[in-house]
Amino acid sequence: MNREQRGLQVIQRLGQTYRAMQAGFSGRVGHALPRWRILLTLSENGTCSQKLLAERCRLDPASLTRLLHALEQLGWIARQVDAQDNRLTNVSLTRAGQEVVDEAMPRRAAFFDEALRGLSEKELDALLHALEILETNFKRAAVERAGE
Predict the structure, then answer these.
(1) Where are the beta strands (DSSP E) in 94-133?
(2) For tag attachment on the chain, is the N or C end more exposed, with fewer CB atoms within 10 Å?
(3) pLDDT confidence band for 123 (50 / 70 / 90)
(4) Which of 132, 116, 136, 108 is nearest to 17 (CA)?
């Protein structure tokens, strides 16, 4: 197998693994990963502007807005215009939202334990290193493409 074929195999497997992780996470923890990232970010950081929340959760603003609307309908978050800058909308967890996060945390921990079962510390370090290299290469490719 040549390098291009091997590269395609790796990238396809990476995508399959990510989709399997998302499905497993959602099934085990009870929340889709994008929604969970929002809830956890707000729990850990407190009130955030929508712009900052989009950056921290790595979501495009339109997707974030749709997710926030759904979370607001569930009563898990509240949105309000920033007192100092009315161009900004701030987002915070409600008490009910914090209860959802607190209730899901043990399932999240169990999911990670199960997901990493069978991998040694050395293997985890090697995997993290390989993923860092891939992410750097992907980002470089995106910047180079944008510069054309």
Answers:
(1) none
(2) C
(3) very high
(4) 116
